[in-house]
Amino acid sequence: MNDDELKKLWQRQPLRDPAISPRQVMSAMQKQTSQLRRTLWARDVRELVACVIVGVIFGVYYFTVSRTPTSRLGDLIVIGSSIFIAFKLIYTRRTTPPAPPGATIVESLRAELNSVRAQSQLLRSVLWWYLLPLGIGILVGTWGSVVGLGGFVFNMIYTVGVIALYAWIYRLNQRAASKQLLPVEAQLESLLHSVETGEPLDETHVAGLRPIVLSMAGRRRG
To answer: Are 136 and 77 contacting, i.e. CB atoms less than 8 angstroms apart?
Structure first.
Protein backbone atom coordinates (compact mmCIF):
# COMPACT_ATOMS: atom_id res chain seq x y z
CA MET A 1 0.00 0.00 0.00
CA ASN A 2 1.41 3.41 -1.03
CA ASP A 3 0.77 6.23 1.49
CA ASP A 4 1.23 9.00 -1.06
CA GLU A 5 -1.36 7.46 -3.36
CA LEU A 6 -3.91 7.23 -0.58
CA LYS A 7 -3.34 10.83 0.46
CA LYS A 8 -3.66 12.14 -3.08
CA LEU A 9 -6.66 10.07 -4.10
CA TRP A 10 -8.77 10.26 -0.94
CA GLN A 11 -7.51 13.41 0.74
CA ARG A 12 -10.76 15.26 0.10
CA GLN A 13 -13.03 12.19 -0.04
CA PRO A 14 -13.55 10.82 3.49
CA LEU A 15 -15.77 7.82 3.90
CA ARG A 16 -19.32 8.35 5.02
CA ASP A 17 -18.47 6.36 8.12
CA PRO A 18 -15.71 8.37 9.88
CA ALA A 19 -14.93 5.41 12.14
CA ILE A 20 -13.34 3.57 9.20
CA SER A 21 -10.51 5.23 7.30
CA PRO A 22 -9.55 4.50 3.66
CA ARG A 23 -6.35 2.88 4.93
CA GLN A 24 -8.37 0.48 7.09
CA VAL A 25 -10.67 -0.35 4.19
CA MET A 26 -7.70 -1.15 1.94
CA SER A 27 -6.07 -3.27 4.64
CA ALA A 28 -9.30 -5.18 5.20
CA MET A 29 -9.72 -5.73 1.48
CA GLN A 30 -6.17 -7.00 1.16
CA LYS A 31 -6.71 -9.35 4.08
CA GLN A 32 -9.94 -10.65 2.56
CA THR A 33 -8.48 -11.25 -0.90
CA SER A 34 -5.38 -12.92 0.56
CA GLN A 35 -7.57 -15.30 2.54
CA LEU A 36 -9.65 -15.97 -0.55
CA ARG A 37 -6.56 -16.82 -2.58
CA ARG A 38 -5.41 -19.27 0.09
CA THR A 39 -8.84 -20.91 0.17
CA LEU A 40 -8.93 -21.23 -3.62
CA TRP A 41 -5.39 -22.59 -3.67
CA ALA A 42 -6.36 -25.32 -1.20
CA ARG A 43 -9.45 -26.11 -3.30
CA ASP A 44 -7.36 -26.37 -6.46
CA VAL A 45 -4.90 -28.73 -4.78
CA ARG A 46 -7.76 -30.99 -3.66
CA GLU A 47 -9.29 -30.95 -7.14
CA LEU A 48 -5.98 -31.73 -8.83
CA VAL A 49 -5.36 -34.65 -6.48
CA ALA A 50 -8.90 -35.87 -7.19
CA CYS A 51 -8.25 -35.60 -10.95
CA VAL A 52 -5.19 -37.80 -10.62
CA ILE A 53 -7.04 -40.37 -8.50
CA VAL A 54 -10.02 -40.47 -10.87
CA GLY A 55 -7.74 -40.81 -13.88
CA VAL A 56 -5.86 -43.71 -12.31
CA ILE A 57 -9.05 -45.50 -11.21
CA PHE A 58 -10.71 -45.30 -14.60
CA GLY A 59 -7.44 -46.22 -16.28
CA VAL A 60 -7.49 -49.42 -14.24
CA TYR A 61 -11.15 -49.93 -15.16
CA TYR A 62 -10.27 -49.58 -18.84
CA PHE A 63 -7.76 -52.42 -18.72
CA THR A 64 -9.37 -54.73 -16.14
CA VAL A 65 -13.10 -54.18 -15.55
CA SER A 66 -14.58 -52.72 -18.73
CA ARG A 67 -15.24 -55.39 -21.35
CA THR A 68 -17.27 -53.63 -24.03
CA PRO A 69 -16.16 -50.88 -26.43
CA THR A 70 -18.84 -48.55 -25.07
CA SER A 71 -17.83 -48.96 -21.45
CA ARG A 72 -14.19 -48.41 -22.40
CA LEU A 73 -15.17 -45.29 -24.29
CA GLY A 74 -16.81 -44.05 -21.09
CA ASP A 75 -13.57 -44.67 -19.20
CA LEU A 76 -11.62 -42.67 -21.77
CA ILE A 77 -14.10 -39.81 -21.57
CA VAL A 78 -13.71 -39.67 -17.78
CA ILE A 79 -9.91 -39.74 -18.06
CA GLY A 80 -9.96 -37.00 -20.68
CA SER A 81 -12.37 -34.98 -18.56
CA SER A 82 -10.05 -35.23 -15.56
CA ILE A 83 -7.16 -33.91 -17.64
CA PHE A 84 -9.30 -31.06 -18.97
CA ILE A 85 -10.51 -30.10 -15.48
CA ALA A 86 -6.94 -30.02 -14.18
CA PHE A 87 -5.89 -27.87 -17.13
CA LYS A 88 -8.83 -25.49 -16.57
CA LEU A 89 -7.94 -24.95 -12.92
CA ILE A 90 -4.22 -24.46 -13.57
CA TYR A 91 -4.82 -22.16 -16.53
CA THR A 92 -7.23 -19.95 -14.59
CA ARG A 93 -4.80 -19.61 -11.70
CA ARG A 94 -1.78 -18.88 -13.93
CA THR A 95 -3.62 -16.23 -15.96
CA THR A 96 -4.81 -14.31 -12.89
CA PRO A 97 -1.72 -13.91 -10.67
CA PRO A 98 -1.54 -11.41 -7.82
CA ALA A 99 0.04 -8.04 -8.48
CA PRO A 100 3.85 -8.03 -8.16
CA PRO A 101 5.54 -6.44 -5.14
CA GLY A 102 5.65 -2.68 -5.44
CA ALA A 103 2.54 -2.50 -7.59
CA THR A 104 0.28 0.52 -7.28
CA ILE A 105 -3.06 0.35 -5.51
CA VAL A 106 -4.88 0.41 -8.84
CA GLU A 107 -2.75 -2.44 -10.21
CA SER A 108 -3.30 -4.51 -7.06
CA LEU A 109 -7.06 -3.97 -7.10
CA ARG A 110 -7.28 -4.82 -10.79
CA ALA A 111 -5.27 -8.02 -10.30
CA GLU A 112 -7.52 -9.14 -7.45
CA LEU A 113 -10.67 -8.16 -9.36
CA ASN A 114 -9.56 -10.17 -12.39
CA SER A 115 -8.86 -13.17 -10.16
CA VAL A 116 -12.22 -13.01 -8.40
CA ARG A 117 -14.07 -12.58 -11.69
CA ALA A 118 -12.29 -15.59 -13.19
CA GLN A 119 -13.05 -17.75 -10.17
CA SER A 120 -16.67 -16.62 -10.14
CA GLN A 121 -16.97 -17.53 -13.82
CA LEU A 122 -15.53 -20.97 -13.06
CA LEU A 123 -18.24 -21.64 -10.51
CA ARG A 124 -21.06 -20.24 -12.63
CA SER A 125 -19.98 -22.34 -15.64
CA VAL A 126 -19.16 -25.49 -13.64
CA LEU A 127 -21.85 -27.41 -15.52
CA TRP A 128 -20.11 -27.44 -18.89
CA TRP A 129 -16.43 -27.75 -17.93
CA TYR A 130 -16.74 -30.01 -14.87
CA LEU A 131 -20.04 -31.79 -14.39
CA LEU A 132 -21.09 -32.62 -17.96
CA PRO A 133 -17.79 -34.12 -19.18
CA LEU A 134 -17.44 -36.35 -16.12
CA GLY A 135 -21.14 -37.20 -16.04
CA ILE A 136 -21.25 -38.17 -19.70
CA GLY A 137 -18.22 -40.40 -19.30
CA ILE A 138 -19.59 -42.08 -16.19
CA LEU A 139 -23.01 -42.73 -17.73
CA VAL A 140 -21.59 -43.95 -21.05
CA GLY A 141 -19.39 -46.39 -19.18
CA THR A 142 -22.27 -47.47 -16.96
CA TRP A 143 -24.77 -48.09 -19.76
CA GLY A 144 -22.14 -49.73 -21.89
CA SER A 145 -22.17 -52.79 -19.65
CA VAL A 146 -25.87 -53.51 -19.11
CA VAL A 147 -26.50 -57.19 -18.32
CA GLY A 148 -30.11 -58.36 -18.01
CA LEU A 149 -33.05 -56.80 -16.25
CA GLY A 150 -31.20 -56.50 -12.95
CA GLY A 151 -28.41 -54.58 -14.63
CA PHE A 152 -30.93 -52.27 -16.28
CA VAL A 153 -32.65 -51.51 -12.98
CA PHE A 154 -29.32 -50.90 -11.26
CA ASN A 155 -28.19 -48.55 -14.03
CA MET A 156 -31.45 -46.61 -13.83
CA ILE A 157 -31.09 -46.12 -10.08
CA TYR A 158 -27.41 -45.26 -10.48
CA THR A 159 -28.20 -42.71 -13.22
CA VAL A 160 -30.82 -40.99 -11.09
CA GLY A 161 -28.33 -40.88 -8.21
CA VAL A 162 -25.61 -39.36 -10.40
CA ILE A 163 -27.99 -36.71 -11.76
CA ALA A 164 -29.20 -35.84 -8.27
CA LEU A 165 -25.63 -35.59 -6.97
CA TYR A 166 -24.57 -33.38 -9.85
CA ALA A 167 -27.63 -31.16 -9.43
CA TRP A 168 -26.66 -30.68 -5.77
CA ILE A 169 -23.02 -29.89 -6.71
CA TYR A 170 -24.19 -27.41 -9.34
CA ARG A 171 -26.48 -25.67 -6.87
CA LEU A 172 -23.69 -25.58 -4.29
CA ASN A 173 -21.33 -23.91 -6.76
CA GLN A 174 -23.91 -21.34 -7.81
CA ARG A 175 -24.56 -20.51 -4.16
CA ALA A 176 -20.82 -20.15 -3.49
CA ALA A 177 -20.48 -17.80 -6.46
CA SER A 178 -23.39 -15.61 -5.39
CA LYS A 179 -22.73 -15.59 -1.65
CA GLN A 180 -18.93 -15.61 -1.49
CA LEU A 181 -17.39 -14.31 -4.71
CA LEU A 182 -19.89 -11.79 -6.06
CA PRO A 183 -19.84 -9.67 -2.85
CA VAL A 184 -16.03 -9.55 -2.97
CA GLU A 185 -16.20 -8.66 -6.67
CA ALA A 186 -18.58 -5.79 -5.90
CA GLN A 187 -16.32 -4.53 -3.10
CA LEU A 188 -13.27 -4.59 -5.37
CA GLU A 189 -15.15 -2.79 -8.14
CA SER A 190 -16.26 -0.11 -5.68
CA LEU A 191 -12.75 0.32 -4.28
CA LEU A 192 -11.21 0.50 -7.75
CA HIS A 193 -13.77 3.06 -8.87
CA SER A 194 -13.17 5.13 -5.74
CA VAL A 195 -9.39 5.05 -6.16
CA GLU A 196 -9.59 5.97 -9.85
CA THR A 197 -12.16 8.77 -9.47
CA GLY A 198 -11.72 9.96 -5.89
CA GLU A 199 -15.41 9.43 -5.18
CA PRO A 200 -16.52 8.10 -1.77
CA LEU A 201 -17.02 4.37 -1.38
CA ASP A 202 -20.47 2.88 -1.45
CA GLU A 203 -21.56 2.52 2.19
CA THR A 204 -22.92 -0.98 1.60
CA HIS A 205 -19.48 -2.20 0.52
CA VAL A 206 -17.77 -0.47 3.44
CA ALA A 207 -20.21 -2.21 5.79
CA GLY A 208 -19.20 -5.58 4.36
CA LEU A 209 -15.57 -4.92 5.32
CA ARG A 210 -16.33 -3.48 8.77
CA PRO A 211 -16.10 -6.83 10.66
CA ILE A 212 -12.61 -7.41 9.23
CA VAL A 213 -11.52 -3.88 10.18
CA LEU A 214 -12.80 -4.33 13.74
CA SER A 215 -11.12 -7.74 14.03
CA MET A 216 -7.78 -6.32 12.88
CA ALA A 217 -8.13 -3.36 15.25
CA GLY A 218 -8.94 -5.69 18.13
CA ARG A 219 -5.83 -7.78 17.52
CA ARG A 220 -3.65 -4.68 17.40
CA ARG A 221 -5.05 -3.47 20.75
CA GLY A 222 -4.53 -6.94 22.22
So the answer is: yes
